[in-house]
Design a protein that fits this description.
Elements (H helix, E strand, L loop, with lengths): L2 H8 L14 H6 L6 H28 L4 H10 L4 H19 L13 H11 L4 H24 L3 H10 L1 H13 L14 H10 L10
């Protein structure tokens, strides 16, 4: 395992398109559910415990089982009821694989993969293990939306990063839980849902003017 590879993969400056997505936060800000730093904290904790756990589990499984990417991708697709979120996930997966091909040698992966599955593919190519893939997925769940919060709400970036630092223990716990299930059958992997994210994504996709793609 290479800590340097993990840092490269989790770096927000990686040109994988993540900066164009708010992780569902833009819709929740527009709906008035998220207005300040405390509300952002609640949003991130809720997302981490649901969509974050699912993403971390599929990233870990994809890293551990390179011959099963198609079935894992199908399993994640069935856990993503929102067409808008499926589209956004595949767009981010495609962008991640494009960036990763400049860094490591990747095997053929076939169709556009969901971002967590693509993350597992890339983690495996970078010499990382399932837990590191899960950490990168959990971190991405919080950091992307937190960065969007600075732009959407005009929050102090120091305060937002202080929040991210306080969430590291939660990220580590979620990642450890996800990695422990890396060898589980696809149907037994986490399927935690976040209905407001799904509803918000569908509404957000209809907007003529928006700051983020999702």
């Amino acid at each position: 395992m290479s800590l340097a590879s993990l840092l490269v993969l989790a770096d927000g400056r990686l040109p994988s398109g993540g900066h164009a997505h708010s992780g569902g936060l833009e819709a929740q800000v527009s709906a008035g559910r998220v207005r300040d730093l405390d509300a952002v904290a609640g949003f991130l904790r809720g997302k981490l415990a649901t969509a974050g756990l699912v993403a971390a589990a599929f990233a870990a499984a994809s890293c551990a089982r390179p011959g099963e990417w198609a079935s894992l991708d199908q399993g994640l697709d069935s856990r993503t009821p929102s067409p808008a979120l499926r589209k956004a996930s595949r767009a981010q997966g495609r962008a991640l694989l494009r960036a990763a091909r400049a860094m490591w040698s990747l095997p053929p992966v076939g169709r556009d993969l969901h971002q967590p599955v693509a993350l597992g593919v890339v983690a495996h190519a970078g010499g990382l293990g399932p837990e590191e893939a899960a950490v990168a997925a959990a971190h991405g769940t919080t950091s992307g939306a937190a960065s969007a919060a600075v732009r959407l709400l005009g929050l102090d970036p120091y305060a937002v990063h202080g929040l991210l630092a306080r969430l590291t223990a939660d990220c580590d716990r979620i990642a450890a839980d996800a990695a422990a299930r890396a060898e589980s059958p696809v149907d037994d992997l986490p399927a935690a849902g976040a209905p407001l994210l799904d509803i918000g994504a569908e509404l957000h996709a209809t907007w003529e003017v928006r700051l983020f793609a999702s």
